[in-house]
Design brief:
This protein has about 300 residues and is α/β, with parallel strands linked by helices. The chain has helices spanning about 5-20, 65-80, 100-105, 115-125, 200-210, 240-245, 255-265, 275-285; strands at about 25-30, 35-40, 45-50, 55-60, 65, 80-85, 110-115, 140-145, 150, 155-160, 170-175, 175-180, 220, 235-240. The protein has one domain: Metallo-beta-lactamase, Chain A (4-Layer Sandwich).
């Protein structure tokens, strides 16, 4: 298959490895949502990106706070970094994004995949959003498509469209590392679910196999870890080679039909993510809360007997 985006990303990874051009990566793990937020920076220029930031949310109290983001901000400032990018791998269903707060404190361009417009249109119907809710992705600063390139200081970076979990999923290749969002988990845990609106197990298989064309040595950073049975610690870093040879759901030799049958059967046994309803409403707004009502308070909707 002539996949020019994968070929370009592979050349970027190999060039980074040849000159030891590796980004420095510091991960902040939020155990309540099992989310890994990655701070990536070029060690030469100090230019940085934050990937998949978390807004703390006490659902029972309906209260938000910024403790997780403040820890990230403290690290960025302590290291003397300059934030260029806030990168969302997709509109998450398991945590609320705190990108607006981080942008207010540190700057940076907020990015998501261009297919966010598809997600916005689907969930605008689910939540009966008013006509004033923009369905064109304009809440974000930049919408990236497959194969788009950008710079993180002296490091090259490439966006790869990897739909299946959601239509808008992007993986970001930065230097010798790829940040895959929810497309893959650790080899001992497998793959993401594909039963959300717009998700598709067959599409997910193709996206995963596409990522597995990257060099075996490529460092892989995940958005989540749930600790596979028998493992005592959370882990969020692996390699393409380890995923390709050892992923329990989709290693070499697993056919598309086998994966689709497994994924669809497994998804039927899974409950809804605990924070899916608040998360989606906020994340399709690029991390902003819904517009306050006349009393100055923002409200989240709870559609009954719909999903």
């Amino acid at each position: 298959m002539n996949d020019s985006a994968i070929q370009a990303a592979t050349a970027q990874i190999e060039a980074a490895r040849a000159v030891a051009g590796k980004p420095v990566i510091r991960t902040f793990f939020d155990e309540p949502t099992f989310t890994a937020t990655h701070v990536v920076h070029d060690p030469v220029t100090g230019r940085a990106a934050i990937i998949d930031p978390v807004l703390d949310f006490d659902q029972a109290a309906g209260r938000t706070s910024h403790g997780s983001a403040d820890a990230v901000i403290a690290y960025v400032r302590e290291q003397g970094l300059t934030l260029d990018w806030l990168l969302e791998t997709h509109a998450h269903a398991d945590h609320l994004s705190d990108a607006p707060y981080l942008q207010q404190q540190l700057g940076g361009t907020l990015v998501i995949g261009c297919e966010i417009v598809t997600v916005q249109n689907v969930f605008a119907g689910v939540f009966n959003e008013p006509a004033s809710f923009a369905r064109d992705g304009s809440q974000f600063d930049r919408l990236m498509g497959d194969g788009e390139t950008f710079q993180l200081g002296d490091l090259g970076a490439t966006a790869l469209h990897v739909p299946g979990h959601t239509p808008a999923c992007l993986a970001y290749v930065i230097g010798d590392a790829v940040f895959v969002g929810d497309t893959l988990f650790m080899p001992d845990y497998g793959s993401a679910r594909a039963d959300f609106p717009g998700g598709d197990a067959r599409t997910l298989f193709c996206s995963i196999r596409r990522l597995m064309q990257l060099p075996d040595e490529t460092r892989v950073f995940l958005c989540h870890d749930y600790k596979a049975p028998g493992r005592e610690t959370y882990v969020w870093e692996t390699t393409i080679g380890a995923e390709r040879t050892g992923n329990v759901h989709v290693h070499d030799g697993v056919s598309e039909e086998e994966f689709v049958a497994m994924r669809e059967a497994r998804d039927k046994t899974l409950g809804m993510p605990r924070l899916i309803l608040p998360s989606i409403q906020v994340n399709i707004r690029a991390g902003h809360l819904p517009e306050p009502e006349e009393n100055g308070v923002s409200y989240l909707k709870l559609p009954l007997n719909l999903l």
